[in-house]
Each structure stands twice: as structure tokens, then as C-alpha cells.
Amino acid sequence: MSVHEPAPTTDFAQGLANLREHGFTVVPDVLAGETLARTRDALYRAAAADRCRGREVEQFALDKGDQSLTQRVWNVLSRDPVFEDLVEHPSALAFVREVLGWPALLGNLSANICSPGCEGGHLHADQTFLGEPWPAAGPQGLNVAWAIDDFTADNGATRVVPGSHLRNCSVPADEMEADTVAMQAPAGSMVVFESRLWHKTGNNITADQTRAGIFAWYTKTYVRTQENWFLALKPEIHQFGSDDMLTLLGYKSAGFGLVNGRSPV
């Protein structure tokens, strides 16, 4: 198992090498300036609206402690147009195409906002929908996490066990408290990690720093999406979506989801 963290890199080939060896890679400076500011404002606005209307989700199974300190925002894709840009960002889709192949599906786009005092979460892998041993073909899913605020060791950055993807199994009961490292990344970074990597939300031990991240979950096409886009999606996203977006949402199909033998669109 790897004992070192990969250095952040904007080199795509090195990022892929980091994924193979460590299970994750940090790509800095993908969002910047006004784009990052608009995205951050849109996310915090959606989170505030959920709190105001009492629409916060009950305790999420992977979170510990007080739910009010670890807010989940679901169906982020329908909340503001800026999030559509994240889903099909060229830097994100480059990793999706290389690791999972194409076509692929967007299983979910959700946010995790970790406020001071949040107790983090339980160590897990995202490929537990498969029986073990997992396929030798490699990861069946890929997370692209967008650091909307700085991710630091103290403010609740996602924590991982580097190299754990090479175990090719879910977290054994006796390793739930395995040593982890924080995926530290400045705001605007893209953190890519594969579905077999053991990870969890970190503890926020700061007095005044909130850590917000948006997590795009992509999978191979045979995997059922976590979000039911056909029920949850705002109509205009389907109506005006690009070919890539419609493919990711399952509206353009190849092999699965056909209607009378053809893709629905």
C-alpha cells in the first residue's frame, strides 16, 4: 500500500499515474476568479434555501455527529446553471473518458458542507454495490470533487487511505479506524479519486472555517444512477443539454436504456 501522497499536478499523464498508484490526484487551479466565486455563491445560496425551508436531509448514513454541522445538498445539478458546467468540464471529462471509457453516466452531483465542529464520517469505498472480489478490470466509478473552499487537514477535507484501492475490497471491519491523510487542495482545485479508494469526510476542528465541496460521481453505464434524473432534473437541462450532458444523464443510450431498440434521443 502506498505511504506517500501524490503532489498536486496539472499534467494529465501524471494525474493518471497518481490515480493508478495512490487512488487519487489533485488538480489545482481549475476554477478561478469569477467562475469560482459564482459557483461558491450558488452552492451556499442553495444550502441556505434548504435550511430556510426545512429541506435538509435526515442523518446521512456515512456522516457522524450533529447533522446540522455536516449539511448535504442533493440534486445540485438542478439548483443553478453553473453546476452544469462542472458536470461536463473538459478537465473532469478527460479523466472520466480515460478511466471509465465512454459513454459513462453521471450517478450523482451533491455537495457536502462541513462546518466547524463537524465530526466527519465513516471510512468507506464507493464500489460496494459490487460483490467481492471486485473486477480486475479496475474502478467502476470515479469521483470528481470540486474544492469550493480550501480543503485543509483541519477544516474537514476528505480523508483517504492512499493506495487502498489496490486492496480491491471494501473496508474490513477491523480497519475502520485505519490511518488516513487529508486530500488538501486550495479552493478551485479538482480532486479526482476512484471508486475503490477508502475515504471519509474529515473532522472540522477549526473555530471559523467552513469547508464546502461538490462531488460528481461518474460510473460505467451498467450502474444505476444514485439520483433519478428522470424525476429530479429541471426540464430545461434535458431540453437544452449538450450531447455529452444527455449521455451522462442517460437520455442518449448505447446498449442500455433503449426505447424500441434505439436511443431515446
TrEMBL record:
Xref: InterPro entries: Phytyl_CoA_dOase-like
What GO annotations for molecular function exist for this entry? 2-oxoglutarate-dependent dioxygenase activity; iron ion binding
Name this protein carries in UniProt: Phytanoyl-CoA dioxygenase family protein
| Xref: PANTHER family | ECTOINE DIOXYGENASE, PHYTANOYL-COA DIOXYGENASE DOMAIN CONTAINING 1
Q: Which Gene3D superfamilies match?
A: q2cbj1_9rhob like domain
- Cofactor needs: Fe(2+)
Protein origin, superkingdom:
Bacteria
Per the record, a Pfam family?
A: PhyH
